[in-house]
Amino acid sequence: MGVSGAGKTEIGRALSAAIGWPFHDADEYHSPANIAKMHRGEALTDADRAPWLARLHDLVTDAVASGQHIVLACSALKEAYRETLRPDGVAPDEVRYVYLDVPREVLEERLRTRHGHFAPPELLDSQLATLEKPRDALWVDGSRTPKEIVVVIRDRLGV
Question: Fewest CB atoms within 10 Å of the CB: 1, 89, 127, 139?
């Protein structure tokens, strides 16, 4: 989890490859209307995010119910969003969060050089304003190399 430009997709894919769990990118679950809104540089509201979070909740619920492990790259900016993702009645350690903590300067540089993503750099301020830094997540220095980050995640989560 983390703001736009934190490296969620890259790290999620690398972690998935390293541990053999299926990877899902939450960006692929956004509605066309949400994608168009972000593409225009407009921040999503909680109402915009609600159906998206419901789809992700179902994805996580199905994985937990079937005993499957997955890696999900998702911004999950607010505590309420993270709670929505967690299936009802599931122990906190069954759904674990990794927060990619990245300095603003690094985020800005990454967003300036990123191509092919619907969220433009102009959304960074709204993402940072919305972000409620997690208390219950593994915090990782997201400015490290992907390989280093994956090693830290695997070591600290025991996967």
Answer: 89
Which residues have a Cβ under 8 Å from the Cβ of 61 and sit 6 or more positions away?
A: 87, 88
The H or E element containing residue 25 is: strand 23-25
Q: Does residue 117 have a pLDDT over 90? A: no
Its pTM stands at 0.91
**Measured between alpha carbons, how far is residue 94 from residues 57, 67, 89, 138 in Å?**
14, 10, 10, 14
What is the CA 142 to chain-centroid distance, rounded? 12
What is the per-residue burial (b if ≥16 Cβ within 10 Å, else e) of 114-123?
Answer: eeeeebebeb
32-73: per-residue pLDDT in tens? 999 999 888 888 899 999 999 999 999 999 999 999 999 999
Dist CA 93 CA 123 (whole Å): 31
Structure tokens at 76: 């999950």
- Rounded Cα gap, residues 155 and 62, in angstroms: 26
